Amino acid sequence: MSVADEIRGYLEDELAQSGTAVSLDDSAPLIGTVFDSLGLLNLVVFIEERFDIVVDDPEITVNNFRTIENLASFVNGKSSTLPAGGNLT
Questions:
Q1: 8 lies in a domain?
Q2: Is residue 59 part of a domain?
Q3: Which of 19, 52, 69, 71 could form a disulfide with 26 if both were Cys (CB 3.0 to 4.6 A apart)?
Q4: CATH code assigned at 17
Q5: Which ranges of 2-79 does DSSP label H, i.e. alpha helix?
Q6: Phi/psi at 12 (nearest 5 deg)?
Q7: Does residue 57 lie in a domain region?
């Protein structure tokens, strides 16, 4: 499963729990449409725990969190433990 798949699955599960069933694509805007500030903090915690990375405060930017595609690229860039292509085992 790719990093993007993991992130998409997490976001879709979170939205479903709040009563909003959606199917997200990798280029859909997230900020202001999919999650609020609390949701962003929860997403950061998920990313840190799932991918074993640290997201520093200055890295929580609109560019890094704009889309699933941006997030996956950010995570892949931070993680030296992921194999090429960002696929998880």
A1: yes
A2: yes
A3: 69
A4: 1.10.1200.10
A5: 3-17, 37-51, 62-65, 68-78
A6: -65, -40
A7: yes
Q: Which residues of 16-44 are buried (b: 16+ CB within 10 A; e: fewer)?
A: eeeeeeeebeeebebeeebbeeebeeebb
CB 34 within 8 A of CB 8: no
Tell me if 56 is assigned to some domain: yes
Note down the domain range covering 43.
Answer: 3-83
pLDDT digits (tens, 9 = 90+) for 40-76: 999 999 999 999 999 999 999 999 999 999 999 999 9
Can you give the pTM of this predicted structure? 0.82
Instruction: Give the model confidence (pLDDT) of 10-50 as tens digits.
Output: 999 988 887 777 888 999 898 877 778 888 999 999 999 99
